Amino acid sequence: MSDSATGHRRIYRVVRRIPRGKVATYGQIAVLAGVPRQARQVGYALHALPRGSDVPWQRVINAKGEVSPRSTPGYEGMQRAALESEGVVFDPRGRVDLGRYQWKPTQRGSGFSMR
Fold first, then answer.
1. pTM of the model
2. Would you say 33 and 14 are in contact if contact means Cβ atoms under 8 Å apart?
3. Does an H or E element contain 24, and which?
4. Would you say 101 and 22 are in contact if contact means Cβ atoms under 8 Å apart?
5. Degrees (nearest 5) of the Cα angle 109, 67, 96?
6. What is the per-residue pLDDT across 92-112, written as a single tens digit (0 to 9) for each?
7. CB atoms within 10 A of CB 94
8. Partner of 10 for a Cys bridge, out of 20, 33, 46, 99, CB 3.0 to 4.6 A?
9. Are 80 and 67 in contact (CB under 8 A)?
10. What is the C-alpha to C-alpha distance for residues 108 and 96, in angstroms, rounded to an integer?
């Protein structure tokens, strides 16, 4: 198996742990997946997901609390709608309050730590 495939699997495993109604940043996922400073790698992995995947890709947003622009038009709106259906609220500038909605895994029980 290639290093890329292994890295993608680790990223997907972390993203699957984000609870409904919470978000995580690309950089946060990179750290938790063991590839710190590789936020773009997280984006590449999510872009590579097959249609119909059970990985909740919509829960990963940028460090500004925004849905990142895509090369394919329409996905930003789809992501925002999916998050809103989970109870995530966007402000008038299109940002999520990370203080309120960011997933904060702890060592106890989650296997992850962001401290």
1. 0.88
2. yes
3. strand 24-25
4. yes
5. 65
6. 999 999 999 999 997 544 455
7. 12
8. 33
9. yes
10. 26
Helix (H, G, I), strand (E, B) or coil at 80: helix
Q: Name the 3-class secondary structure at 60.
A: strand
Structure tokens at 7: 């890295």
Structural domain spans, the chain: 3-99
Burial classification of residue 60, based on how many CB atoms lie within 10 Å of its CB (0-12 exposed, 13-18 middle, 19 or more buried): buried
Q: Please state, in angstroms and rounded to a whole number, the distance separating the CA atoms of residues 9 and 94.
A: 30
CATH number of 3-99: 1.10.10.10
Q: What are 80's two structure tokens?
A: 């925002």
**12-66 confidence digits (pLDDT tens):** 999 999 999 999 999 999 999 999 999 999 999 999 999 899 999 999 999 999 9
Q: Read off the tokens for 106.
A: 């702890």
- Residue 19 and residue 86: Cα distance in Å, rounded? 10
Distance (Å, whole) CA 67 – CA 73: 13
* Position 61, amino acid: I
